[in-house]
Amino acid sequence: MNTFLAFGREHVERHFRKTGQSVYMHLKRHVREKVRGASGGALPKRRNSKMFLDLDTDDDLNSDDYEYEDEAKLVIFPDHYEIALPNIEELPALVTIACDAVLSSKSPYRKQDPDTWENELPVSKYANNLTQLDNGVRIPPSGWKCARCDLRENLWLNLTDGSVLCGKWFFDSSGGNGHALEHYRDTGYPLAVKLGTITPDGADVYSFQEEEAVLDPHLAKHLAHFGIDMLHMHGTENGLQDNDIKPRVSEWEVIQETGTKLKPMYGPGYTGLKNLGNSCYLSSVMQAIFSIPEFQRAYVGNLPRIFDYSPLDPTQDFNTQMTKLGHGLLSGQYSKPPVKSELIEQVMKEEHKPQQNGISPRMFKAFVSKSHPEFSSNRQQDAQEFFLHLVNLVERNRIGSENPSDVFRFLVEERIQCCQTRKVRYTERVDYLMQLPVAMEAATNKDELIAYELTRREAESNRRPLPELVRAKIPFSACLQAFSEPENVDDFWSSALQAKSAGVKTSRFASFPEYLVVQIKKFTFGLDWVPKKFDVSIDMPDLLDINHLRARGLQPGEEELPDISPPIVIPDDSKDRLMTQLIDPSDIDESSVMQLAEMGFPLEACRKAVYFTGNMGAEVAFNWIVVHMEEPDFAEPLTMPGYGGAASAGASVFGATGLDNQPPEETVAIITSMGFHRNQAIQALRATNSNLERALDWIFSHPEFEEDSDFVIEMENNANANIVSEAKPEGPRVKDGSGMYELFAFISHMGTSTMSGHYVCHIKKEGRWVIYNDHKVCASERPPKDLGYMYFYRRIPS
């Protein structure tokens, strides 16, 4: 009740011991089954008067069968003395006011993202007295199409006359032609239900007159008028019923293994993540990340230490949030199979659907996406971009000397040749994934593709149903060949000619990572600059050998380009600022860094570009990259002149402040007065540029310096010389080895572009493939390895 931080039962004692805070409010929600009576169909959800907390309810529990009751009390530590709330008699007025404020407050996530929360739907004012025409219309259980345009998706049944018409058109070319709305304007019939969403629990109902989604308490009766028995309907995501006969061709169906009876999986490592509204890109990446032992050990394996030494506000600490999420996914506490009695009860109710609740990554998403213009929104994002963003965060928040993202890190040798002089330059840069182009010209079924395209265009022009999809089949070997071929270098500046010239570049692996991430470059832009996606099938191998892509370095007979840098061009209005102002490395604009990293440049190079251009934006930093990208240390960590270590948080555990920079004595005294050692205080202030608040957080997140005080003293003794033997500049951290790999996970995307669609992850565990589709975790029957977007390979020991 002092910091207003919330903790689970197993962590509240740790917080009490750490901070001495003794007063906590205990909040609990009880779920009880209602006394069953006669069912009257789909009833509107009404707020239970016993619910006063602004918490999520369990969507998997039918509100007609269960009721909720909230309980609140104060608990005084260490004796666990409990005071039930409200209790005006025993509590001081100030405490009572504080308790009332907490209990009546809105969820911070609801305040942050009001548009993503589902409000309680109102009951339509037309539902009670809806007129239904006795015109003999009967709706079949499947095979629907729009009465005006023959579309077969996004169809709505008007509840007055039984017309089946298509919905609105959306910006991503999905949806329909808006004929349902036109029909309302012509007739004034207000209510429609979306076909494919009808289940015994209800359906999606829309009121054209009220212009919003509504509830229809008499929906069962209104549907029965047109021959639909909602108690025997089973909705599907794409609007097709189970008895529809349709080949599994659509990537939505194939990737999600629709039509296959999937067995739910439970236990450690089989916990799903709830979709927060277009958060599937995050869920898929995190499932793959925490299937890697190095990440499991770094975070979940260090859980007691990370939690014990977390900052005063753990909600703003990356390592704490990673550990919390990893524990939720791997502990098995949130993925337990239903007990036998529950299974019997479900069978008796004819609703045998094993519940998989998953965990909600709200706090994790809020932290990792803050200050990022895209990930902090509720729009769909690119999983590959989020992967790089996550690697950047891991690099900047390494735990001591341990950095689990090193398993992805490898060196790329780039050979650039001047076409006029034939001279070459070899450089190395750090990267974290291999981007493979889609070799469309190598498709093995070109004749089928041409015939399909002609038939599709003819069907569209004649408004007939589209033909069955034909997907391009691309050999993986062709994509690998396209990766290794030379590419032209735009605006290449030849140091031999001291002028711009034509140049070609080839890339090879200077080292092979322990885990190789392969991205298929499916997303591109059309001639009209509209984003589009290659819907292709690539025969990705289970075993991958890329040893032939090993770099060879300068070859006999090759002559190197002179080591001369091109002239630097800086905007005139920025020169004075650049010469007079050096920003603190900790204040680097991370949004500009990520914009550059998402273009494919190394993270360390992006940080240097933003730093040396004074946070003037991604465009100016991009110009710096173009000028410096051929330099040997282009992708090396940022090192400050006059400083003893690398500037990036991921490059040195000592931070960016030089060892000869003695912090103010009064600030040291403040920290030592809190009970910390003087050596700890000095080191923390040096690592945080003498910022008191950040220094305190640094102490809690670096307990190893408390344990190794001799090392700190030695650092202090060497401060005047600005030399520490352990702080010698280190080379790129790589774990080189064989180029033989085996596939263990892949992430697939469904949809037309990265701005829309859905992500699903498949992971091979205990010898079998498992599909992670948000909160649903099941044994995979037909893993669609040919339709993936990102593939994760692990090295095979030689």
From TrEMBL:
GO terms for molecular function: cysteine-type deubiquitinase activity; zinc ion binding. Its EC number is 3.4.19.12. It catalyses: Thiol-dependent hydrolysis of ester, thioester, amide, peptide and isopeptide bonds formed by the C-terminal Gly of ubiquitin (a 76-residue protein attached to proteins as an intracellular targeting signal). GO terms for cellular component: cytoplasm. Residues 122-230 form the UBP-type domain. Pfam families: UBA, UCH, zf-UBP, zf-UBP_var. CDD domains: Peptidase_C19B, UBA1_UBP13, UBA2_UBP5. InterPro entries: Papain-like_cys_pep_sf, Peptidase_C19_UCH, Ub_carboxyl-term_hydrolase, UBA, UBA-like_sf, Ubiquitinyl_hydrolase, UBP13_Znf-UBP_var, USP. Keywords: Autophagy, Cytoplasm, Hydrolase, Isopeptide bond, Metal-binding, Phosphoprotein, Protease, Repeat, Thiol protease, Ubl conjugation, Ubl conjugation pathway, Zinc, Zinc-finger. Its main location: cytoplasm. It is found in: Cytoplasm. It comes from the Eukaryota. SMART domains: UBA (SM00165), ZnF_UBP (SM00290). Zn(2+) binds at C146, C149, C166, H179. One of its GO terms (biological process) is autophagy. Coiled coil: none annotated. Belongs to the peptidase C19 family. Interacts with UFD1. Interacts (via UBA domains) with SIAH2 (when ubiquitinated). Interacts with BAG6; the interaction is direct and may mediate UBL4A deubiquitination. Interacts (via UBA 2 domain) with AMFR; the interaction is direct. Interacts with UBL4A; may be indirect via BAG6. Interacts with NEDD4. Deubiquitinating enzyme that removes conjugated ubiquitin from specific proteins to regulate different cellular processes. This is Ubiquitin carboxyl-terminal hydrolase. The lineage of its organism: Eukaryota, Metazoa, Chordata, Craniata, Vertebrata. The gene is USP13.
